[in-house]
């Protein structure tokens, strides 16, 4: 009995110890379960965030793929357009090169024609100058009433042609006008009052010219007259002076008839230096 009674406290103490150990274990397990649950919840949250992140990444990748596909499509279309434009530019360039070559050929041809035209114009201008020189030589042998005006016009035309201040058309028109004036003068009778070109006749003098073969002047007093007899070797005018009132009056009478101040009549005017010399005798 004593032994039984003595063992109970031990059993109780053992039971209490066991209960204490169990309680500690359960407490530890409870704490561990809470921590595990918290860890699980944390992991779940992280997994949820990872899934969300993966979903966003997947959506971004899908969007990038779509945008890249669109870019490739646009790039392909632009590449095709660029190729078309490049081919078109090449074709236009080739066409422009052909046009340029054609224009160069036309330009060269135009320059050649222009050069030929300039040479022809220069040759024609030289022909006008030659004609002026020949006409000047002829006009200088005509009576002063014709010669002075014609030589002056020819000299002026020669200067303009030489300096090229007029074109060939105007030069030709002026030359034809001078030729026409010479032609008209060769068949005209001219009278007038002018300053005497004869040293022996001072002041003004009355002049009569018949065509390009005869010209005479007389002083206003009717005492001295002079007949044109051509030019000397130096081209100076030659005048045969006659100091005879009768001969001078014939010149004045011829002028009066031409002016209509006297009745028409035949007037014996000397022609040429030989006729004048015979009359002087």
As a whole number of angstroms, the C-alpha radius of gyration is 67 Å
- Separation of the first and last Cα atoms: 224 Å
What summary fits the major beta sheet?
5 strands, antiparallel
Shape: rod-shaped
- Helix count equals 5
Which whole number gives the mean pLDDT? Answer: 83
Number of strands: 5
- Approximate strand percentage: 5-15%
Question: How many domains?
Answer: 2
Q: Which bin fits the share of residues in helices?
A: over 70%
Class of secondary structure makeup: alpha+beta
| Main sheet strand line-up | 1-2-3-4-5
Overview of the structural elements:
- Helix content is 72%, strand content 12%.
- Helix 1 runs antiparallel to helix 2 (144-163) and helix 2 packs antiparallel against helix 3 (168-186).
- The protein starts with a helix and ends with a helix.
- The chain has helices at residues 2-139, 144-163, 168-186, 245-259, 272-280; strands spanning 189-195, 204-210, 214-219, 225-231, 237-242.
- It is α+β, with helices and mostly antiparallel strands and 281 residues long.
- A hairpin with a 5-residue loop joins strand 4 and strand 5 (237-242).
- The chain has five helices and five strands; from the N terminus they run H-H-H-E-E-E-E-E-H-H.
- It has a five-stranded antiparallel β-sheet with strand order 1-2-3-4-5.
């Amino acid at each position: 009995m004593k032994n039984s009674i003595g063992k109970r406290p031990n059993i109780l103490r053992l039971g209490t110890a066991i209960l204490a150990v169990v309680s500690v274990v359960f407490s530890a397990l409870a704490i561990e379960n809470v921590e595990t649950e918290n860890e699980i919840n944390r992991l779940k949250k992280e997994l949820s965030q990872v899934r969300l992140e993966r979903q966003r990444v997947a959506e971004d990748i899908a969007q990038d793929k779509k945008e890249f596909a669109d870019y490739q499509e646009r790039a392909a279309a632009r590449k095709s357009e660029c190729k078309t434009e490049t081919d078109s530019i090449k074709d236009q360039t080739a066409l422009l090169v052909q046009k340029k070559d054609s224009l160069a050929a036309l330009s060269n041809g135009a320059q050649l024609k222009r050069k030929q035209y300039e040479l022809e114009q220069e040759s024609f201008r030289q022909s006008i100058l030659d004609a002026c020189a020949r006409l000047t030589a002829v006009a200088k042998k005509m009576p002063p009433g014709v010669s002075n005006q014609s030589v002056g016009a020819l000299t002026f035309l020669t200067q303009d042609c030489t300096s090229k201040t007029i074109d060939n058309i105007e030069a030709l028109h002026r030359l034809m006008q001078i030729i026409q004036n010479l032609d008209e003068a060769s068949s005209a009778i001219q009278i007038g009052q002018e300053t005497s070109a004869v040293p022996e006749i001072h002041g003004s003098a009355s002049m009569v010219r018949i065509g390009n073969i005869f010209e005479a002047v007389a002083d206003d007093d009717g005492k001295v007259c002079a007949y044109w007899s051509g030019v000397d070797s130096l081209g100076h005018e030659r005048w045969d002076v006659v100091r005879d009132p009768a001969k001078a009056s014939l010149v004045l009478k011829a002028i009066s008839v031409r002016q209509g101040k006297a009745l028409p009549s035949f007037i014996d005017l000397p022609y040429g230096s030989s006729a004048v010399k015979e009359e002087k005798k």
